[in-house]
Design goal:
Shape of chain A: globular
Strand order of the largest sheet of chain A: 1-3-2-4-6-5-10-11-9-7-8
Strand content of chain B: under 5%
Structural class of chain B: mainly alpha
Strand order of the largest sheet of chain B: 1-2
Helix content of chain A: 25-40%
Order of helices and strands of chain A: HHEHEHEHEHEEHEHEHHHEHHEEH
Radius of gyration of chain A: 21 Å
Largest sheet of chain B: 2 strands, antiparallel
Number of helices of chain A: 14
Oligomer: heterodimer
Number of domains of chain A: 1
Distance between the termini of chain B: 42 Å
Largest interface: A-B, 58 and 45 residues
CATH topology of chain A: Amidase signature (AS) enzymes
Structural class of chain A: alpha/beta
Radius of gyration of chain B: 23 Å
Order of helices and strands of chain B: HHHEE
Number of strands of chain A: 11
Number of helices of chain B: 3
CATH superfamily of chain A: Amidase signature (AS) domain
């Protein structure tokens, strides 16, 4: 049962030689082989390479080396380029693409001694809120196989909650980490824009893409970011800014902190069960000595419109490179959702419409940024639900793109403004998980961890595991 | 709100299958009418956002470094010839 440990407990066990990295990797592969047939979280396994990496990690551990991810088995969303290993973006276009180099985040994870088990399923090109848009079949929610796990980083989220991996990388352009994290009872971070290098991660929407990850606990999440964060000359949006010790503020509690509650997030369409859980969490924080303050982000209602203009415009530009010449198949292999976004983006950028759509959206984006700047003058963090609705049933929204797009209504805001957001498990309703979103100013990831961990210590929801049965 | 799907697909170099034009026209028009709500907002004198964390003019030293070998660069191409990519012709006889 060593695969069920948290990442930080697994690190302790490696240090005290209770088990080896090879033991951990084998336990994860065993778990994957027993259960992934029904979940479809993994697209490609790299077993041979992983066992080799685990052996190397065991040597480093034997030499007394310590680092946050040394010897820890992880999985990567199949949007991260991995040298010599198939990288599909969840799309038939790249079905046979073998990456020629490692992305910067992958390189850092490897250097830190993490063991890469394989590549996880996703909505093709990271386009989706449910995990159903993968050209290789939908991923299922392990808490109820008839429900969606959230997307687009569906397989990464599911692999962590089912103990197939101790942590997994994902990407978040409009909620693709926070939504599946909230639907699968795991901790998911969308870091500040530029905190983690995007180099070697297949681009979706370049002004919004953030490289983050899923873990079982808040501490685990901080340990992972310690490895991936920092300046990369190959991505000019990564600033020359110090990477703090992300575990330093853990355990400090929330006494004296000002927590803002934006009224625009507690709207009529919010599922009452989610509202109850978030309000419970706010009461808890108040008891712990935080000050709960009602605030307003007045332009919130426009965030989703701005997002679907900016994002599709950038998607149409980024996906223009897939022409079947240098890699992949030609453009008839794109699925429906990629086609919709390419066309929407092409439309809003086309002659005669650019000013009305794209330019207008970039102006409203400025107003959204100002809303946040104003609020963070007086409060420390914001707390909101991660999703307005519970994980819905497979197929329920697939024929209605607009309804699917509105699933991101609470998450796109952070991407447009560039601030970090953390989704933390906040309870269950009807056997399905609920997530709480904590937002902070640019580069305040350490503060988000501090606030999240104070809640997690008294509410260890992460320990409530899905019932997977004995085997497939 | 109407969108000429055939024209847009041509601009985006996207081949469409039978029946897709009508389906996408319906779906995309619905999304476009929704995003049109932005018209309500007055944005005179509001500058456009160009970068969300405030970076400006990021430069690097102009020096070369190791890149992919020719073989690596060609390794995923479906069609190659004498160490080069084969591309569709753009000039007709």
């Amino acid at each position: 049962m060593i695969h069920t440990l948290s990442l930080s407990d697994a690190r302790d066990g490696l240090n005290s030689k209770d088990f080896s990295s090879v033991d951990l990797a084998k336990a994860c592969f065993e778990q994957i082989k027993s259960h992934d047939d029904k979940l479809n979280a993994i697209l490609t396994l790299s077993e041979k390479e992983a066992l080799h990496q685990a052996e190397e990690a065991d040597k480093r551990i034997a030499n007394g080396e310590e680092s946050p991810l040394l010897g820890i088995p992880i999985a990567l969303k199949d949007l991260f380029l991995t040298k010599g290993i198939r990288t599909t973006a969840g799309s038939n276009v790249l079905e046979n693409y073998i990456a020629q180099y490692d992305g910067t985040a992958v390189q850092r994870l490897k250097e830190a001694g993490a063991v890469i088990l394989g590549k996880t399923n996703l909505d093709a090109w990271a386009h989706g809120s449910s995990g159903e848009n993968s050209d290789f079949g939908p991923t299922k929610n392990p808490y109820n196989l008839e429900h969606i796990p959230g997307g687009s980083s569906s397989g990464s989220s599911v692999s962590v909650t089912t103990d197939m991996a101790f942590a997994a990388s994902g990407t978040d352009t409009g909620g693709s980490i926070r939504l599946p994290a909230s639907f699968c009872n795991v901790v998911g971070l969308k870091p500040t824009y530029g905190r983690v290098s995007r180099y070697g991660v297949i681009a979706m929407s370049s002004s919004l893409d953030s490289i983050g990850h899923f873990t079982k606990t808040v501490r685990d999440n901080a340990m992972y970011l310690q490895v991936t964060a920092g300046r990369d000359p190959k991505d000019s949006t990564t600033p020359n800014k110090d990477v703090p010790d992300y575990q330093k503020k853990l355990g400090k509690g929330v006494k004296g902190l000002k927590i803002g509650v934006p009224k625009e997030y507690f709207i009529e369409g919010l599922d009452p069960n989610i509202r109850i859980q978030i309000e419970d969490a706010l009461k808890f924080y108040e008891k712990q000595g935080a000050e709960i303050i009602d605030v307003s982000l007045p332009h919130t209602e426009y965030a989703i419109e701005v997002y679907y203009i900016v994002q599709t415009a950038e998607v149409s530009s980024n996906l223009a490179r897939y022409d079947g010449i240098r890699y992949g198949y030609e453009r008839s292999h794109f699925g429906d959702e990629a086609k919709r976004r390419i066309m929407l983006g092409t439309y809003v950028l086309s002659a005669g419409y650019y000013d009305a759509y794209y330019k207008k959206a970039m102006k409203v984006r400025t107003l959204l940024i100002k809303d946040f700047q104003e609020v963070f003058k007086t409060i420390d963090v914001l707390i909101t639900p991660a999703s307005p609705s519970m994980p819905w049933k497979l197929g329920e929204r697939t024929d209605d793109p607009l309804k699917m797009y509105l699933s991101d209504i609470f998450t796109v805001h952070a991407n447009l403004v560039g601030v970090p957001g953390l989704s933390v498990p906040a309870g269950f309703k009807g056997g399905l998980p609920i997530g709480m979103q904590i937002l902070g100013p640019h580069f305040s990831e350490d503060l988000l961890y501090q606030v999240a961990q104070a809640y997690e210590m008294e509410h260890p929801w992460w320990k409530k595991k899905p019932d997977l049965g004995n085997s497939t | 709100m109407n969108i000429n799907v055939k024209h847009i697909a041509k601009l985006a170099n996207l081949p469409l299958r039978d029946g897709e034009e009508e389906k996408f026209e319906r779906q995309l028009s619905e999304v476009l009418s929704y995003v049109n709500r932005l018209d309500k907002l007055n944005t005179d004198n509001v500058p456009e956002t160009s970068q969300s964390t405030g970076l400006e003019n990021v430069t690097r030293e102009d020096k070369t470094e190791k890149s992919l070998t020719q073989d690596e660069a060609l390794s995923n191409a479906l069609k190659t010839h004498n160490g080069m990519f084969i591309v569709p012709g753009i000039l007709q006889d």
